[in-house]
Specification:
Chain lengths: 123, 500, 493
């Protein structure tokens, strides 16, 4: 039996946002910033998308910036959850993929090589 | 208007920075078990890891770590007790993951030095090049640029990628900035790369063939007015594929910078491409738009923390340092400093040693490699080692001379023949019919013929004017088609004319 | 037959009353019957599954010794590569891509003769908490088809709840196994980081991702855990130690004398009342079974969500760079390589993926690294320390798995922060790399939808979760009189 209820419960949502921290609407990130990032990340974006993303990221960045509150200089960063060190393998040759397998996903190929559009820029 | 080098160094002093990449000669790649054979058919030595297929993960090759530590120790570096791999993020089709697994602020070796010796006007001078860091990374795939006129990237219509070389272990050796070389910057740069190459070869960690790309050098050059303490803007030159090119590239960049500065222009901080044929550089990627590499610690790999036992074990297996070896050879062979420096400069020391090991006299071996062979190499603008003449050939020639079957002059013909690709010394001697005419009677008949043709010269010699004999000796040599032993001719001639 | 647990099915296979082919067929039939509504599967490998089943039956007839789960069908989250089988990660970017290699998880499933039925739907590249971000459309919760099944591994959990498979594999980066388990009334486990190989697991956030078992019972999950877990030399981050004896622990559901730590910060106002009620009841049950309930405080957990939404996007911005139209996957656009890359990544990635890539690119940028990614890494240390202190006071730590029951499809789709909040209780586990499990704790009063009870154990002590989970499960089953999934609505037409 499906119960009728008001959803979402505004009280819960408000409480959740409180738990996440104060969200102040400072403009951290501009559309130009996002455009530069999109360029770095090699993603074409329309102006509308850039604008939309800029405001979304603004909200998110404001929310996540609170990590700085506790990230004191004396706290070491964690890159790996486990204290593993020196994981190596012997210098032994293992079987490779066949060229057919290696190229099996290639959008284009020629002479057993991956064919890619012209690369501009330096050598 | 091109400046002369002398003009450049009269006003400016150079500051160098050298980055050398070495391909390690391990059996398998840096992060996977694919084979590393050079020249294999395209994409036959790849796997999910080095192709960067979704889901693939790297595992570090222990031998690569060992080799890198050995290199660091040989360069007097400190070995980091804790070092990490980092991702260097940028997009390029020859890099399957679009990031390179490298090292950033925690390299495995740092703060070392290498002493090099160069020949200056005032005699040999030592320079200490400080090493900033030695770190590990992986090589990229290789692209063939198709459709353009030159096979180069500009104007190409498309490219073909082969990932056999992607993931080959690379070690990058970066110097601190090198001031104080003055006009010898080009020579110091070359000497540094040469010495480094010899060390690496001696360690057995790489076949260090610049022509094949297993040793690559990027030269950073900047100029500042003499006496200034601020650094000038630097340019980075890539595609420097030989020791000679290192020297030429540095010299060329110094001149180029000076021309700009003299004209009141600014040097652009950029990457430039060296051209073997012209000795000049052209602009590549501008460093002002330098990519933000967004380095962060590689989460798929755990830190490398070599313990002192392992490090000392590697240290104990280090071979004789090239500088120690050179001192040893110099003493054994009794070679004066200047000649020693000349051999190193001409890059023939290994060749001479190999020749000596086959039995040749060190001085004679050196004489050939440094003399005739080096001369031809210079003419052809290659290094002596690239010519098709081997220590075996030279040893043979030296022994034939000592047996009297060849004169120096005839030997030069043989050398020239070997280098032209006519075959080995014995074949050339047979084919060309090179023979020393040492039969006294044959020589005497030629001598008498020469005297008869130039009686007045003969009179002069009889009269005590010895140098005049040269004309007669020349005539005899001509008559015998150069196959006479000139010294013998002289002896007989003078004796015959009452002066011997 | 398909309503039973995997262990029960295995018993029937072992005693010969059932063949794997029959069992597999029954599940394939079920999928054909209900998946048009549930949409749990992206690819069903009918031929391959039946061939695998046949091969196992032959081995059994020949008297070969087989592993405990041999011949049992399983649904595989489409983030793990399976050779020759389409693997999409719920993205258009990899539509039609057939990997040339098997992930280690798949290799181990095959080595255990487990029958892989097909690949299940997921949020694109594992980014999401509802499976709404799949480029192939959402999966529907079998409890109420208008609701989400959780995410990112909604397909796997829905398949279990719809009886399309008795076993499934998921992956968990911030809760992507546990939260779907909670909202579908199933069991989901995130092993200790490094406990299961990541080789062949298409990476979202490398230092957080972990593959894990999904099932309808704790014991089934334990069997699956042992089948896939253990050291892998192809994964430098995998633990070189034997899998904790989780099956033995699951069979020994006894909490007498154990200390159960309730994390103060993971309950309260942000949690739906019905969820909290079921959670507290489960605590009472554990107490009645002889456990001691203690309260612990992990004060840095308030920063966990923020740290996660810096670390995961940063790592993913780098991990997803390889999708550039050059070697595999989608290629659209014309012009230079860079233009084709830009166009393909625009067309191939969905909104959430692009959002996280841009966020991650920003967090790693020079000038911002210390403030964002660098700081987040420090919060991670603090969270690990919080857990370490808490585990000094308790053997396991508990919380509700998710703050709410399943919400409606479309409800939170336009509010990223609201969506991110679904993981608020599960994220700390991934940041610290410890183990976490969700098992059903009953239906919430207000909506009669499933709630989940989360148990967390210290790194490499996964067996503790199974021990406590098994005890709670048995007690709840006894209280309900029937398994929770007996309450799911009829799906078949």
């Amino acid at each position: 039996m499906d119960c009728e209820r008001r959803w979402p419960d505004p009280k819960v949502i408000r409480a959740q946002r409180r738990a996440l921290g104060k969200v102040t609407f400072m403009s951290n990130i501009s559309r130009d910033d996002v455009a530069n990032l999109a360029k770095l990340a090699r993603i074409d974006m329309s102006d509308a998308e850039l604008d939309h993303l800029a405001s979304e990221l603004d909200v998110i960045l404001n929310a996540v910036a609170r990590v700085q509150e506790v990230a004191g200089a004396d706290v070491p960063p964690t890159s790996h959850p486990l204290p593993l060190r020196n994981i190596f393998r012997e210098d032994q040759v293992k079987e490779s993929l066949t060229p057919e397998e290696a190229l099996s996903g290639a959008p284009a190929q020629e002479e057993q090589r991956f064919k890619v559009p012209r690369i501009l820029g330096e050598e | 208007m091109a400046l002369r080098y002398e003009d450049v160094i009269a006003k400016y002093e150079p500051v160098l920075g050298l980055e050398v990449h070495v391909e390690l000669g391990t059996n398998s790649k840096m992060f996977c078990g694919c084979n590393t054979i050079f020249g294999a058919a395209p994409n036959t030595q790849t796997c999910p890891v080095c192709l960067g297929l979704p889901g693939a993960l790297p595992v570090v090759n222990a031998k690569a770590i060992e080799y890198t530590i050995a290199i660091g120790l040989a360069l007097n570096c400190s070995i980091a007790p804790f070092s990490r791999f980092a991702r260097k993020n940028y997009f390029y089709p020859d890099m399957p993951k679009n990031f390179q697994t490298s090292q950033y602020d925690e390299p495995i070796c740092s703060n070392g030095y290498l002493d090099v010796s160069i020949d200056t006007d005032e005699g040999p001078r030592e320079f200490r090049i400080e090493i900033e860091r030695v770190h590990m990374e992986e090589d990229t795939g290789k692209s063939l640029h198709m459709g353009g006129a030159t096979g180069r990237i500009h104007g190409a219509e498309y490219s073909l990628l082969d990932y056999n070389r992607a993931g080959i272990p690379l070690v990058e050796i970066v110097t601190k900035i090198v001031p104080g070389t003055g006009k010898y910057a080009p020579e110091v740069a070359r000497a540094y790369v040469t010495e480094l190459r010899d060390i690496l070869r001696g360690l057995g960690v790489s076949d260090v063939k610049m022509e094949q790309g297993s040793l690559r050098c990027d030269a950073n050059v900047s100029l500042r007015p003499i006496g200034s303490t601020t650094l000038g803007t630097r340019s980075e030159t890539k595609n420097v594929n030989s020791l000679r090119s290192v020297e030429r590239a540095v010299r060329g960049e110094m001149i180029r910078h000076a021309e700009l500065l003299d004209a009141g222009k600014k040097v652009v901080q950029e990457t430039r491409h060296f051209h073997e044929d012209t000795g000049l550089t052209t602009p590549g990627r501008s460093k002002e738009q330098a990519e933000d590499y967004r380095y962060f610690p590689e989460p798929d790999l755990v830190p490398v923390a070599p313990d002192t036992t392992w490090i000392e074990e590697i240290r104990s297996r280090l071979p004789e340092k090239p500088s120690v070896r050179r001192r040893r050879l110099q003493e054994t062979w009794q070679v004066p400093d200047k000649e020693m420096a000349a051999m190193i400069n001409a890059d023939v020391l290994d060749l001479v040693e190999a020749t000596v090991q086959l039995g040749a006299d060190p001085t004679r071996a050196r004489g050939w490699w440094l003399g005739e062979i080096a001369r031809i190499a210079n003419e052809k603008e290659v290094s002596a080692g690239e010519l098709p003449i081997t220590p075996t050939d030279v040893n043979e020639i030296v022994s034939l001379i000592s047996l009297g079957e060849l004169t120096d002059k005839l030997a030069r013909q043989v050398v020239e023949g070997v280098i032209s690709g006519e075959g080995r010394p014995k074949e050339i001697i047979d084919r060309r019919g090179i023979k020393v005419v040492s039969d006294d009677s044959a020589l005497m008949s030629a001598i008498e013929k020469a005297i008869a043709a130039q009686p007045d010269v003969a009179e002069k010699v009889r009269g005590g004017h010895i140098p005049a004999a040269g004309a007669l000796i020349g005539a005899v040599m001509k008559e015998t088609k150069g196959q006479a032993d000139a010294a013998k001719v002289r002896e007989l001639l003078l004796k015959h004319l009452g002066q011997g | 037959m398909i309503n039973r647990s995997a262990a029960e099915m295995a018993a029937s296979l072992a005693d010969g009353s059932l063949t794997s082919v029959e069992l597999t067929k029954a599940h394939l039939d079920r999928i054909a019957l209900v998946d048009s509504k549930v949409k749990a599967f992206l690819h069903v490998d009918t031929e391959g599954a039946l061939a695998q089943a046949e091969a196992v039956d032959k081995k059994r007839q020949a008297g070969e010794k087989l592993s405990p789960l041999a011949g049992i069908p399983l649904a595989l989250k489409d983030v793990l590569v399976q050779k020759g089988i389409p693997t999409t990660c719920g993205s258009k970017m990899l539509e039609g891509w057939r990997p040339p290699y098997d992930s280690t998880v798949v290799a181990r499933l095959k080595a255990n003769d487990i029958v892989i039925l097909g690949k299940t739907n997921m949020d694109e590249f594992a980014m999401g908490s509802s499976t709404e971000n799949s480029a192939y459309g959402p999966t529907h919760n079998p409890w109420d088809l208008t609701r989400i099944p959780g995410g990112s591994g909604g397909g796997s959990s829905a398949a279990l709840a719809a009886f399309e498979a008795p076993l499934a594999i998921g992956t968990d980066t911030g809760g992507s196994i546990r939260q779907p388990a909670a909202v579908t009334g199933t069991v989901g486990v995130k092993p200790t980081y490094g406990g299961v190989s990541r080789y062949g697991l298409i990476a979202f956030s490398s230092s957080l991702d972990q593959a894990g078992p999904c099932a309808r019972t704790v014991l089934d999950a334990a069997y699956l855990h042992e089948a896939i877990g253990g050291h892998d030399p192809m994964d430098s981050t995998s633990i070189n130690a034997p899998v904790p004896s989780v099956v033995a622990a699951a069979k020994n559901g006894n909490v007498k004398g154990m200390k159960i730590g309730v994390i103060k910060e993971l309950q309260g106002d942000g949690y739906q009342p019905g969820v909290l009620k079921r959670f507290n009841e489960s605590l009472e049950i554990l107490a009645s079974l002889g456990a001691e309930i203690v309260e612990v405080s992990c004060k840095h957990f308030d920063y966990a969500l923020a740290a996660y939404y810096l670390i995961a996007p940063s790592e993913c911005s780098s991990n997803l760079a390889r999708f550039d139209a050059m070697r595999y996957g989608m290629r659209v656009g014309s012009g230079s390589a860079e233009e084709v890359m830009n166009a393909t990544r625009q067309a191939g990635f969905g909104r959430e993926v692009k959002r996280r890539i841009i966020l991650g690119t920003y967090a790693l940028s020079s000038g911002y690294y210390d403030a964002y990614y660098g700081s987040a890494q420090k919060v991670r240390t603090l969270i690990s320390q919080d857990f370490a202190s808490a585990f000094e006071k308790a053997d396991v730590l508990v919380s509700p798995t998710a703050p709410t029951t399943a919400f409606k499809i479309g409800e939170k789709a336009n509010d990223p922060i609201a969506m991110y909040l679904n993981d608020i209780a599960t994220i700390p586990t991934n940041l610290a790399g410890i183990a976490g499990m969700s098992l059903p704790s009953g239906l919430a009063d207000e909506d009669q939808l499933p709630t989940g009870f989360q148990i967390m154990a210290p790194a490499m002590k996964d067996d503790r979760m199974y021990q406590v989970g098994s005890a709670l499960e048995a007690a709840l089953l006894s209280k309900w009189g029937k398994p929770i999934l007996a309450n799911t609505p009829k799906l078949e037409p």
